[in-house]
């Protein structure tokens, strides 16, 4: 049985319409139809989503179905993963260790009334900086690591520092980013806002070159193109686990850095690029263009050289 036939069998055996699968996976009905008739092949990530949907919370059943579908996927695409438990996805942590996403906190004068615990309509998330990026990343990591302890926080606690640590945003709003960056070794620095540039941080690369966002005017109020920063390193507090930093000049840069490896359309291809370019996905960094189109940040395609502003890996 090939992959399209197996996907069709799973759905019909469960008595489900294509729309139910489409809604669960967040795609259109036509996409599900194309996967079942073989006109298109779902990504490895979508195959994992199928396994999770049909296996539910039963871990053994999930792993068995996932392996079966990935074998069929390998046959369909002519690829033969050396280890199906270590597929090249930046956000899958096979050791099952805890994952902590540490976010920046908005300044008090920028918080809404709902960030006040005394407010009857208190909403804890309203204090988060880079909230769009956090929601995108948290849901993605939880989906890929359904049996891991995944949490998001505004400040790291001592035990969090030994987890797979993900830091969102720069040092200006994220104290954990500020402190951890002092331990890490990478060639890009982020220059904080000052009197001349009061809105947003910018990056400095070796040689002193400045890498900044592009704005519609000198007041830096409308972003035309942001800059995203993605860094993956061993966690200096526990080298058996990872440290990931997603930053930007403005918020759309942070979101673009996250979407670079979560986007359903180009995320897998970007991961393939990183693995091919750097030899692994465990120790590298990128500065990338994040175009802003109609206020919406577009996901960078790393196969496009114009998307890559600066890149490095250990030993370079």
Describe the fold and architecture.
- The protein has 316 residues and is an alpha+beta fold.
- The chain folds into two domains: 3-86, 434 Repressor (Amino-terminal Domain); 99-313, no CATH class.
- Helices cover 32% and strands 21% of the residues.
- It contains nine helices and twelve strands.
- It has helices spanning 3-13, 18-25, 29-37, 44-55, 59-77, 131-144, 175-181, 251-259, 267-278, and strands spanning 99-102, 150-153, 164-168, 189-191, 202-205, 209-211, 214-215, 223-235, 238-248, 284-293, 296-297, 308-313.
- The strands form two sheets. Strands 1, 2, 3, 7, 8, 9, 10, 11 and 12 form a nine-stranded mixed sheet that branches.
- Strand 8 and strand 9 (238-248) form a beta hairpin.
- Helix 6 packs parallel to helix 8.
- The longest helix has 19 residues, at 59-77.
- The chain is globular, with a radius of gyration of 21 Å.
- This is Transcriptional regulator, contains XRE-family HTH domain.
- Pfam families: HTH_3.
- Residues 7-62 form the HTH cro/C1-type domain.
- InterPro entries: Cro/C1-type_HTH (IPR001387), Lambda_DNA-bd_dom_sf (IPR010982).
- GO terms for molecular function: DNA binding.
């Amino acid at each position: 049985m090939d992959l399209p036939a197996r996907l069709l069998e799973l759905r019909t055996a469960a008595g489900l319409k294509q729309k139910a699968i489409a809604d669960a996976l967040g795609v259109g009905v036509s996409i599900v139809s194309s996967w079942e008739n073989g006109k298109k092949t779902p990504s490895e990530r979508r195959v994992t989503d199928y396994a999770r949907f049909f296996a539910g919370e039963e871990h053994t059943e999930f792993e068995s179905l996932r392996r079966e579908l990935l074998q069929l996927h390998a046959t369909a695409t002519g690829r033969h993963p050396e280890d199906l438990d270590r597929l090249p996805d930046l956000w899958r942590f096979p050791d099952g260790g805890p994952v902590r996403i540490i976010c920046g906190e908005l300044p008090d004068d920028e918080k809404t009334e709902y960030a006040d615990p005394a407010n009857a309509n208190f909403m804890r998330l309203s204090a988060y900086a880079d909230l769009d990026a956090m929601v995108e990343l948290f849901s993605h990591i939880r989906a890929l690591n359904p049996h891991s302890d995944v949490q998001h926080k505004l400040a790291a606690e001592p035990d969090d520092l030994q987890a797979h640590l993900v830091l969102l945003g720069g040092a200006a709003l994220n104290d954990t980013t500020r402190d951890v960056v002092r331990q890490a070794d990478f060639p890009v620095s982020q220059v904080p806002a000052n009197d001349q540039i009061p809105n947003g941080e910018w990056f400095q690369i070796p040689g002193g070159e400045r890498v900044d966002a592009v704005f519609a005017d000198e007041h830096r109020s409308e972003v035309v193109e942001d800059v995203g920063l993605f860094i993956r390193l061993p966690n200096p507090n526990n080298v058996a686990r990872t440290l990931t930093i997603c930053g930007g000049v403005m918020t759309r840069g942070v979101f673009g850095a996250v979407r670079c490896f979560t986007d359903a359309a180009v995320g897998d291809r970007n991961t393939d690029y990183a693995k091919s370019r750097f030899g692994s996905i465990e120790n590298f960094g990128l500065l990338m263009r994040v175009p802003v189109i109609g206020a919406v940040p577009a996901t960078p395609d790393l196969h496009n050289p114009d998307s890559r502003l600066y890149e490095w890996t250990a030993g370079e």
